[in-house]
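Internal tracking record. Fields below are filled automatically when a chain is submitted to the structure queue. Please do not edit lines marked as system-generated. If the sequence contains nonstandard residues, flag them in the REMARKS field before resubmitting.
Queue: standard
Priority: normal
Entity type: single polypeptide chain
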Amino acid sequence: MTKKAWGLAALLTTSGALHFARPEPFDTIVPRSLPGRPRTWTYLSGVAELAVAAALANPRTRRAGGVAAAVFFAAVFPANAKMAYDWRGASPVKRAVAYGRLPLQLPLIWWALEVARDDTE
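SYSTEM-GENERATED OUTPUT FOLLOWS
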């Protein structure tokens, strides 16, 4: 596995596992417009992250995994926007974290697409 693919798979595995180990912070950033309970969305997104990580780890599915990761990072942008909105009155550190997550989505999407384009093992 390339270093780029390995790193992205590790990031997604860690984040996906955290959705189950400590779901509360993720519950709070689920957009209210989504139907159902926030915990359901927290678990579903954790499963998605773990599935994408597994796809990245397998050379046969790595290209699809990279595309799926890019789509996933775009799809969770509304949760990051909700966090930034909800934390607009929080401490400067919390605001920096929340606002910093917004532009971070672009390099994550780029990284995922780089992995999808990389044909090396």
